């Protein structure tokens, strides 16, 4: 069985996540940010074995606690899409580079990597156990910014369409606490204006998101 703990950390309303297999206690940290000792406390409390350190994208507010874990455990590598390495400090290593569409395994869990560029070129979402961790691609009621260096509103629209194709009951775990902590893909397709605009066509979405 998959268990998820969501942490709201830091001054920007970031969400970090610990995802683990309740049987074998193997775990992944998604977007380690701001307060690594808070994440480490749960890892100790639940007696978890940390197997993956995963980034949805490499902006500093999602990755600034990665070094803490890498220095403590030399068996870990920071897992990030290859197109986002330009956003990392040069001395962050080792790296496990993703191309997108891989499947990661820890415990009895299988986690699918979905390449969802737009906010950054290497943004990914992680799909596992009926839940999707979308970073800054999709929030509750919003989508990620597409006006930053490396952003692409056309790519972001296609990424939202990719997420919209998931089952409606898929639980959404976003990267920031904008408008709420969690939702479902079905609810966002019905009420999120950016998801609606993405479905209508490129011109309308780009006008709104760029």
Report what the structure shows.
By secondary structure, this protein is α/β, with parallel strands linked by helices. It is 27% helix and 31% strand. The strands form three sheets. The chain has a six-stranded mixed β-sheet. Helix 4 crosses helix 6 and helix 6 (193-200) packs antiparallel against helix 7. The mean pLDDT is 97.
List the helices and strands and how they pair.
Elements: E1 2-9, E2 14-21, E3 26-30, H1 36-45, E4 49-54, H2 60-63, H3 66-72, E5 78-81, E6 95-98, E7 103-106, E8 109-115, E9 124-128, E10 131-135, E11 138-139, E12 142-143, H4 153-164, E13 171-174, E14 183-184, H5 185-191, H6 193-200, H7 202-209
Parallel strand pairs: 3-4, 4-5, 5-6, 10-13
Antiparallel strand pairs: 1-2, 2-3, 7-8, 8-9, 9-10, 11-12, 13-14
Helix pairs in contact: 4-6, 6-7
Features:
alpha/beta; Metallo-beta-lactamase, Chain A; 27% helix; 210 residues; 6-stranded mixed beta sheet
